[in-house]
Hints:
The protein has about 500 residues and is an alpha/beta fold.
Amino acid sequence: MTETKDLAYWRALAERVPLRTQAYIDGRWADAADGATFDTVNPATGQVIAAVAACGGADVDRAVAAARRAFDQGIWSGLPRSARKAALLKLAALVDTHREELAVLETIDMGKPIADTLGYDIPEAARTYAWYAEAIDKIYDEIAPTAPEVLATITREPLGVVAAVVPWNYPLLMASWKVAPALAAGNSVVLKPAEQSPLTALRLAELAELAGIPAGVFNVVPGLGAVAGQALGLHADVDCVAFTGSTATGKRFLQYAGQSNLKRVWLECGGKSPHIVFDDCPDLDRAARAAAVGIFNNQGEICIAGSRLYVQDGIYDRFMAKLEACAATMQPGDPLDPASAMGAIVDRAQLDRVLSYVHAGREEGARLRLGGERVRTDSGGFYLQPTIFECPSQALKIVREEIFGPVLAVTRFHTEEEAVRMANDSPYGLGSGLWTANLARAHRVSRRLQAGLVWVNCYMDGDVTVPFGGVKQSGSGRDKSLHALDKYTDLKTTWISLA
Ligand code: NAD
């Protein structure tokens, strides 16, 4: 448990945790064909952790060919579902057994607090493998209600080769949301982790091998987005790309598919999620805490972060005082310290990007209520205070654009109608939240919010049983739940004449 293990314990583990830095293709570890590498950096210190293989087109070709071969040979796709279930349950158990080292790898690679990686990211990843393992042998196909002289079956078949391209904010968990259902359904997978955070994906490959997932079925190609990511997007033998990342990159994947083989593309993209507190909020303390955690958890690097907060006038001043008090407790600290509620921003470029939004907020006339400064600079790391702006207009950049950092834009509203209008005034539609004691209003507003996820009297809660994804420019398709299996299977109709 985190509470009983202190900073010294985690620092010592970080020093000795084994690192994998090569690509994992067809059951073997290999450097990039051209020997290229990229540095992965610890955001808490700015120090290089390791040079990792930077896969290029030739490596992606090898990985896709291995995945295709494995699929065609049926060494995984052709197994009884109970056998795939057994291997994935073993993988879930291995992730759980190795949770401390996976948590440390995630924390040093990405900058998020050890309390979060150990308490959430890694156990949720393990649960995801176990859940799809348990699900896959309980799903039946269909028989259509045709005339008696016909038997028409509707069966689900795996697609073939799935490329999973994932971001750096929840590296192992985002990968697992795709890898687990794709493998459970019988596909082969090529995973490309983000260049900021490749270490847990590579460790996952080792664990998958130990779990008995055959060579070629699961491959990991670390590399740069514009090289390895693009090669997967354009590859003629990839059947599906399951992507999580920014909306700009998501749009590229749609273009890659159009330029190549019209592969299926599922997109989990950006967000600018509205979080609404009505003046009949049943519990202002809980709402203030949820609003603070909803934007400052994971340094604000969360696609569903409640980055636009709308507070009704009747409670505005009282609520803001409570919010400020909660936010002030979430100061950034060493990510390896179990007491840290916030860690470091993932890299220098992202820190600069977030700071440019803080600057824009000031320039455009937003009122800075809290934070706004870089801190802990002596560490060499990339830390920013929790930052709250009050916004006089919805036209401000900090209200309209995804910042992906610990910056909250607060707006006061008067009526329900106004709150819904402002909430929906965004190109994104991922998360949303509202606090009210009025049941009719809860239903009414939930229906009207243009979002894939609505939280009522809570924020960011959930588990693997419910779909996760967005509308508008937040993407298409859903991760998690049984619905995620739709992304990795196709329907086949077989019409059999019995005449
Ligand atoms: P990103 O789009 O820069 O990168 C995501 C992945 O795409 C990485 O693996 C990257 O290497 C790859 N990539 C980058 N450029 C590419 C290109 N030209 N061609 C092919 N691949 C390319 O996103 P990021 O900065 O890693 O992550 C932050 C974004 O992810 C935010 O917008 C956030 O909202 C989004 N996100 C969404 C969800 C969701 O479920 N909707 C979850 C987490 C993060």
